[in-house]
């Protein structure tokens, strides 16, 4: 095996989803095809796969794209079911390729992302958005339970929702002072974190202490935020599912 892939490889592309989104890039089905091609080319052997764990991330990009391109949220429950159904088929494909253990992340509380809580001046999460997340996670858990009936305990769901909410509800326990307000923001609504103007002058601000913030920008946690979530997952014994 080439040295550079000995410890694994990432096929995810930022902004993409289970289906196509507004972000140009391969959706999850195509990402799995890229993985399959490496197996076909002999980069990964059957022995490698039987000693491997695959992490499948569904971060909610499908839903933000759907809401942005559909005037009414009326058909959202049906769309959630289709996203979970396709995710389940994707998990099955990865298993059939020979990977021994597959972990899929449940959705984090999308209603607590700063791009949503900005409407309340970063004071409270949006219950409607989190109801959508609950539907997704319930259907995902049911799908994974069904898969495990065919492949004994090969699949597990990583409970990101409850680990996120635990940190957000008890921030000081994790040395987090600003749980909903992002650290990095644009100087006004025309700019975002990392923006520069035509003269390459930065048009964003960064907080004094990123380690005290849970969110880095409007959608991503800081390193400290992820560390707090990881510690919570560990105390929840959620990481035991990854072990062989």
Keywords:
244 residues, mainly alpha, 3-stranded parallel beta sheet, two-stranded antiparallel ribbon, 5 strands, 41% helix, 8% strand, globular, GDSL, hydrolase, lipid metabolism, lipid degradation
Quick gist of this model?
The chain is mainly alpha-helical. The protein has helices at 28-40, 46-50, 61-69, 76-96, 114-117, 127-150, 160-169, 223-235, and strands at 53-56, 101-105, 155-158, 184-186, 204-206. The protein is 41% helix and 8% strand.
Largest sheet: 3 strands, parallel
Radius of gyration: 19 Å
* End-to-end separation: 22 Å
Q: How much beta, percentage-wise? A: 5-15%
Number of helices: 8
Order of helices and strands: HHEHHEHHEHEEH
Mean pLDDT reading: 95
The structural class is: mainly alpha
Globular, elongated, flat, extended or rod-shaped: what is the shape?
globular
Q: Major sheet: order of its strands?
A: 1-2-3
* Uncertain residue ranges: none
The counted number of beta strands is 5
Helix proportion: 40-55%
Description:
Keywords: Hydrolase, Lipid degradation, Lipid metabolism. This is GDSL esterase/lipase. With 244 residues, this protein is mainly alpha-helical. The chain contains eight helices and five strands. It has helices at residues 28-40, 46-50, 61-69, 76-96, 114-117, 127-150, 160-169, 223-235; strands at 53-56, 101-105, 155-158, 184-186, 204-206. The chain has a three-stranded parallel β-sheet with strand order 1-2-3, covered by helices on one side. Strands 4-5 form a two-stranded antiparallel ribbon. α3 (61-69) runs antiparallel to α4 (76-96) and α7 (160-169) crosses α8. The chain is globular and about 50 Å long.
């Amino acid at each position: 095996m080439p040295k550079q892939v000995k410890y694994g490889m990432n096929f995810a592309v930022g902004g993409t989803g289970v289906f196509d989104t507004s972000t140009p890039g391969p959706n999850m089905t195509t990402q799995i095809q890229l993985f399959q091609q490496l197996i076909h080319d002999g980069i990964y052997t059957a022995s490698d796969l039987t000693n491997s764990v695959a992490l499948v991330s569904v971060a909610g990009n499908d839903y933000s794209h759907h809401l942005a391109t559909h005037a009414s949220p009326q058909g959202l429950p049906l769309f959630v079911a289709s996203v979970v159904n396709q995710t389940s088929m994707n998990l099955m494909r990865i298993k059939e390729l020979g990977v021994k253990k597959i972990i899929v992340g449940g959705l984090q509380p999308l209603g607590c992302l700063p791009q949503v809580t900005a409407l309340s001046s970063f004071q409270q999460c949006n219950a409607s958005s989190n109801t959508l997340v609950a539907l997704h996670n319930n259907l995902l858990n049911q799908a994974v339970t069904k898969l495990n009936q065919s492949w004994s305990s090969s699949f597990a769901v990583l409970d990101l929702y409850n680990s996120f909410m635990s940190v957000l509800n008890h921030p000081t326990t994790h040395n987090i002072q600003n749980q909903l307000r992002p650290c990095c923001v644009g100087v006004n609504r025309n700019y975002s974190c990392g923006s520069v103007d035509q003269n390459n002058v930065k048009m964003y601000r960064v907080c004094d202490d990123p380690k005290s913030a849970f969110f880095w920008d409007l959608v991503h946690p800081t390193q400290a935020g992820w560390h707090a979530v990881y510690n919570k997952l560990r105390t929840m014994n959620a990481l035991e599912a990854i072990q062989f």
